[in-house]
Amino acid sequence: MAESLFEKVSMTHPCFAREKGRYGRVHLPVASRCNIQCRFCRRDFNRVEDRPGVARGLIKPFDAAERVDEALRLCPAITVVGIAGPGDPLASGEAIAAFERVREVHPEIMLCLSTNGLMLPDYAARLIEIGVSSITVTVNAVDPDILHKIVSRVAFRGVTYKGTDGAKILIERQLEGIRAVSKSAMVKINTVLIPGVNDGHIALTAKTVADAGARMYNIIPLIPQHEFASFPPPGCADVERARAEAGRYIDVFRHCKHCRADACGIPGVSEFASELSAAPETFSHG
Fold first, then answer.
1. pLDDT tens string 68-121
2. How far is the C-alpha of 45 from the C-alpha of 85, rounded, in Å?
3. SS3 of 143, please?
4. Is residue 162 part of a domain?
5. Contact at 8 Å (CB) between 30 and 58?
6. How far apart are the first and last CA of the chain?
7. Which domain holds residue 217?
8. Which of these, 7, 13, 10, lies nearest to 79 by C-alpha position?
9. For residues 51 and 44, is the Cβ–Cβ distance under 8 A?
10. C or N terminus of the chain, fewer CB within 10 Å?
């Protein structure tokens, strides 16, 4: 990645900026599908939960630029348009279409994507061509024997894989995708820390993604829900220990706000998602 672009992202992307509380972002909830099932993930439509995978509803890609216009009127400090759900942005072409629409109307704004990485190799060239400058990939393990305990199924090219077969495909595709985009975009890794499952695997995961070209690593404490509803979340000491292990190989990000898929405003300072136009509630579980 060109250092000038890295510096721009580091300065003005609200998730990375050195001056916290100055820059804003808007998330476009256009991703209607997901192609994997994580055992901790429960997508939902509501107005109250502050976590990934939640939105008030979905918008159409063609409406993306109008949504950004509306967000900028509410929060002129917005510098980034991101797509982070509520499904996976690359499980269909919706995110690409939305980014293309935003780029037509707002060529000055930064674009950001968060994905599980399964389809990242297929879309890598197009994402870079459009000008996506930061890409977050959720990598919860790089050992199939661990990952299959976290991801119950992977739908890839019309076939659903379970167990270590699905985990192997997902890991291979994630690392291929990271290598494909890391020279042109800031790559951040999210890892959900799950005590007793992947908490002893953080160092190897961090080293592996760093070797593939990732530049930043984010530990997300488990939110107990879905199949992991009875699992205890990691404590502060567990999170700090994981950060220290990851920090041996890669810069560690410490300011995650667990943003909703329809977030709008300055993280930790202002939130305008509820003031944006409502969207219909609809999911595809294909």
1. 998 898 889 888 999 987 889 999 899 999 999 999 999 989 999 999 999 999
2. 11
3. coil
4. yes
5. yes
6. 34
7. 3-275
8. 13
9. no
10. C
CATH number, domain with residue 186? 3.20.20.70
Let me know if 245 is exposed, middle or buried by CB neighbors in 10 A (0-12, 13-18, 19+): buried
Structure tokens at 187: 């790559």
**Whole-model pTM?**
0.89
Q: Is 250 inside any structural domain?
A: yes
Ramachandran region of residue 54, left (φ > 0), alpha (ψ -120 to 50) or beta? Answer: beta
Q: Residue 283, Cα to own-chain centre: how many angstroms?
A: 18
Whether omega for the bond prior to residue 86 falls within 30 degrees of 0, making it cis, is yes
Count how many domains the chain has: 1
Is residue 121 situated within a structural domain?
yes
Residue with tokens 């293309």: 100
In a domain, 256, yes or no: yes
pLDDT in tens, 228-255: 989 999 999 999 999 999 999 999 988 7
Kindly give the pairing relationship between strand 264-265 and strand 24-27: antiparallel
Measured on CA atoms in the order 10, 12, 13, 18, is the torsion positive or negative?
positive
